[in-house]
């Protein structure tokens, strides 16, 4: 075995060990959100801070730097197009970022975000931002320190943090994509408002027993390809998906017996994330080729199954009879046309995760705007509720009555995930472009869905997206899969076509 081959083998061993250590922290994080007693928060924060420090030690071990130096020449691992070089390239990027971060900062961020998430849950329940305000101040301060330590080519703090979620992206690039998208969405929303057609959403507010919702959601998630032998579904304050590694992927949702879409589409959304996690190469766990490409690509999978599939007429052509059997008192007398229109109702709403396909991206743009201002110092944590309400009114024409449906609705800031939000809208664009290509390759997907045939799409995603892991950056992956750079046109084509039909535009 050559010296380079030995170096690569040693690097792989080191990275897989780091992956295992981080997955242990992920299990504790999942348990914190689903099962941890309130009085255990302080101890859990210390546990997670310890693991964060140990992971940082391993991630910044000088041995990794030495191995990466030995493998700097792409030819040492067979060339720059190989999976091995993708692992080296991504390991180098991660190592260079990690060594810039002081261990003390890494531990403090872990400890603070663990405690702040518990404060956020209480603040949201009590509709009282003042309970969360001091934690948000601490988090923003720590994230500014992190951004300063990492630095960015543009000198913009926000860009330093985006790199963790969408490598290579910048706030300016994202804004250049969002601006025309927002203009087109505002125009579409305006046309929909003027339509005489108004779906009867009270259908969705009838009584849907929680246990039946759970069973029906699991049936649908199973049908689209989520493997419950390698995963499970639990309840959390905010829905999420945690992939711990091969054979263990956890989904969470939340239920309201008088709001059917929340849990059902939330479960489909998280199942989409889970199908991606379950589609990664088990043998490459801990390596770039066994990790998701980016958060935007990850969100493309969840948004695709939630909206392009789950809210399609073809999906309900197959599932509506089952839904009527499951919820006879709620929709036994409701025609499928009325139900389909209700689950595709477009109107300004308070909660992002329950927003329709058209206005959803406006929710993201609001958060994108505010968190940039927070990070650069143009917005103080204390002023978040007022500025949120002012911006929300500007975007949606209505003002939140309390902070639980305003600035306290998302878990992201309490978890320190500043820079994450833009990936949702990027994911919507990726999803539409991928779906369009899948339709070209597979034929009439809607005809398949109407017959309950979801595996052709799931396997196409496995073979064209999941299999690559992080071999390509997101923009490269889009071109490899679709032959075109990312564009908002497939998303706008889908929205105009679908909602033009629903609202008779």
UniProtKB/TrEMBL annotation:
Checking InterPro entries in the record gives: Peptidase_M32_Taq
Name the cofactor(s). Zn(2+)
Identify which top EC class this enzyme belongs to. hydrolase
Q: Which reaction does it catalyse?
A: Release of a C-terminal amino acid with broad specificity, except for -Pro
Q: Which CDD domains match?
A: M32_Taq
User: What top-level branch of life does the organism fall under?
Assistant: Bacteria
One GO biological process term: proteolysis
The EC code for this enzyme is 3.4.17.19
One Pfam family of this chain: Peptidase_M32
Residue positions binding Zn(2+): 269, 273, 299
List the active site. Answer: 270
Per its UniProt record, what PROSITE patterns does this chain match? PEPTIDASE_M32 (PS52034)
Cite the GO molecular-function annotations of the record: metal ion binding; metallocarboxypeptidase activity
Give the record's cofactor note, including how many are bound. Answer: Binds 1 zinc ion per subunit.
Query: What keywords sit in the KW lines?
Result: Carboxypeptidase, Hydrolase, Metal-binding, Metalloprotease, Protease, Zinc
Role summary: Broad specificity carboxypetidase that releases amino acids sequentially from the C-terminus, including neutral, aromatic, polar and basic residues.
Entry's family note: Belongs to the peptidase M32 family.
Q: What is this protein called?
A: Metal-dependent carboxypeptidase
């Amino acid at each position: 075995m050559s010296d380079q081959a030995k170096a690569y083998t040693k690097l792989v061993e080191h990275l897989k060990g780091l992956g295992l250590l981080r997955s242990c922290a992920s299990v504790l994080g999942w348990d914190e959100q689903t099962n941890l007693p309130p009085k255990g928060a302080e101890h859990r924060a210390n546990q997670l801070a310890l693991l964060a420090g140990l992971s940082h030690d391993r991630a910044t071990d000088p041995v990794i730097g030495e191995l990466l130096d030995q493998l700097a020449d792409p030819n040492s691992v067979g060339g720059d197009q190989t999976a091995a070089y993708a692992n080296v390239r991504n390991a180098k990027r991660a190592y260079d970022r990690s060594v810039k971060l002081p261990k003390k900062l890494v531990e403090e961020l872990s400890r603070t975000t663990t405690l702040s998430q518990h404060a956020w849950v209480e603040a949201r329940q009590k509709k009282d931002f003042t309970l969360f305000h001091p934690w948000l101040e601490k988090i923003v301060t720590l994230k500014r320190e992190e951004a300063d330590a990492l630095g960015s080519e543009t000198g913009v703090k926000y860009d330093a943090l985006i790199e963790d979620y969408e490598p290579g992206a910048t706030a300016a690039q994202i804004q250049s994509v969002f601006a025309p998208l927002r203009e087109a969405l505002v125009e579409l929303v305006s046309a929909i408002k003027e339509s005489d057609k108004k779906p009867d959403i009270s259908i969705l507010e009838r009584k849907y027993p929680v246990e039946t919702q759970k069973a029906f959601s699991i049936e649908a998630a199973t049908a689209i390809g989520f493997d419950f032998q390698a995963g499970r579904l639990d309840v959390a304050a905010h829905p999420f998906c945690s992939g711990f590694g091969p054979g263990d992927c956890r989904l969470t949702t939340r239920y309201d017996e008088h709001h059917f879409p929340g849990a059902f589409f939330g479960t489909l959304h998280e199942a989409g994330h889970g199908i991606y996690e379950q589609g990664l190469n088990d043998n490459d766990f801990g390596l770039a080729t066994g990790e998701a490409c980016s958060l935007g690509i990850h969100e493309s999978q969840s948004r695709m199954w939630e909206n392009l599939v789950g809210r399609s007429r073809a999906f309900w052509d197959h599932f509506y009879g089952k839904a009527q059997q499951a919820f006879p008192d709620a929709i036994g007398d409701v025609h499928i046309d009325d139900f389909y229109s209700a689950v595709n109702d477009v109107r300004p709403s308070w909660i992002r995760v329950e927003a329709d396909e058209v206005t959803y991206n406006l929710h993201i743009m609001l958060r994108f705007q505010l968190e940039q201002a927070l990070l650069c110092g143009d917005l103080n944590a204390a002023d978040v509720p007022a500025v949120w309400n002012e911006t929300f009114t500007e975007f949606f024409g209505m003002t939140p009555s309390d902070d639980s449906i305003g600035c306290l609705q998302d878990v992201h800031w309490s978890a320190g995930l500043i820079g994450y939000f833009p990936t949702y809208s990027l994911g919507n664009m990726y999803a539409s472009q991928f779906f369009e290509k899948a339709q070209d390759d597979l034929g009439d997907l809607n005809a398949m869905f109407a017959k309950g045939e979801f595996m052709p799409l799931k396997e196409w995603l496995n073979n064209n997206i999941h299999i690559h892991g992080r071999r390509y950056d997101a923009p490269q992956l889009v071109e490899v899969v679709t032959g075109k750079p990312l564009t908002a046109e497939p998303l706008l084509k889908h929205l105009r076509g679908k909602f033009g039909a629903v609202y008779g535009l």
